[in-house]
Specification:
Largest sheet: 7 strands, mixed
CATH class of the largest domain: Alpha Beta
Number of strands: 11
Number of domains: 3
Low-confidence stretches: none
Strand content: 15-25%
Mean pLDDT: 86
Structural class: alpha/beta
Order of helices and strands: HHHEEHEHEHEEEHEHEEEH
Radius of gyration: 25 Å
Helix content: 40-55%
Distance between the termini: 53 Å
CATH topology of the largest domain: D-Maltodextrin-Binding Protein, domain 2
Length: about 290
């Protein structure tokens, strides 16, 4: 089977028109039509219903489209892996990480990795864990570093690299700073800032604060904005304890009902794992984050 025919087939599926598909990949319309006919002859079934100038996938065509996408992805992964091994090009991995985790994790991950594997380039994208997981499933990202939750991510494999806890953070002059531990009832009507909707952090915090009913005055992913509100005693928040742990003019206090989180590296289940991806997974499993 000619792999180019599979690319042609997927392009026709995208445009639902032979002429437009041919124009998009700069070949003649008769050539792409012939390729589809040859593919159908080899398979023994029709891929499309032809209705005038429009075409629609047959039931068999829909199944074959899914299988061809999977095959081409594996083939492209194999090509990348072969090139990595041959060192004909610098390998590149796309990594997603939420902004708040990146503030204290990237400095512990990147420098040593770059020294050990100078031929593997890491491209970092700031994305919430939920978004990162979706991008992994769509093959837009190779990995995401985020909160592990097997109840949410169906087609994701993961490896825990770090366990953390969320603390209340407030100004030392705030009434809450007088307490060695914070219970939910203390937070009623307290001005609060939390991360924006769409993040895993937002999900767990809003669930925990549902009965406490603080006065949420701002949703923001900008740590500089959150810090400004905290330092000026305009709001309090709940964040990973590492973020403001060593900040002199802020106070971090544990919660009576602890909120813990497993941070890990996530990747798409059942995908082809290239040589550079294997090295990254092994590296992440070996590091010790203090």
């Amino acid at each position: 089977m000619n792999i180019n025919y599979l690319y042609y087939f997927q392009t026709v599926c995208k445009y639902k028109n032979m002429t437009k598909a041919a124009e998009s990949i700069h070949i003649s319309q008769p050539s792409i039509t012939l390729a589809i006919k040859e593919l159908e002859k080899e398979l023994g079934f029709e891929l499309f219903y032809r209705i005038g100038n429009k075409i629609e996938l047959t039931p068999e065509g829909k199944i074959f489209l899914d299988k061809s996408k999977h095959f081409i992805k594996q083939f492209e992964d194999f090509q990348c892996d072969a090139l990595d091994l041959g060192k004909k090009r610098k390998a590149s991995l796309k990594i997603g990480i939420p902004t708040v985790l990146g503030t204290f994790l990237l400095s512990k991950i990147l420098p040593r990795f770059n020294v050990i594997y100078p031929d593997i380039e890491l491209k970092i994208f700031e994305v919430p864990t939920f978004v990162g997981a979706k991008m992994i499933e769509e093959s837009t990202l190779d990995f995401c570093i985020g909160i592990i939750d097997s109840d949410i991510y169906d087609d994701i494999d993961s490896k825990t690299i770090y366990k953390t806890e969320l603390y209340l953070v407030t100004n030392p002059k705030n009434e809450l700073a007088k307490h060695p531990i914070i219970s939910n009832y203390m937070l009623k009507n307290v001005p609060f800032v939390i991360l924006s909707e769409g993040s895993y952090h937002y999900k767990i915090i809003t669930k925990r604060l549902e009965k406490a009913k603080p006065n949420i005055i701002l949703h923001s992913n900008q740590l500089s904005t959150i810090r400004y509100l905290l330092e000026n005693d305009l709001a309090s928040t709940i964040l990973y304890k590492e973020i403001f742990q060593n900040t002199e003019n802020l106070c971090s206090i544990p919660l009576e009902r602890a909120i813990t989180a497993n941070i890990g590296v996530l990747w798409r289940r059942n995908q082809y794992i290239s040589h550079s991806m294997k090295l990254f997974i092994e590296y992440m499993a070996s590091i010790h984050i203090n």
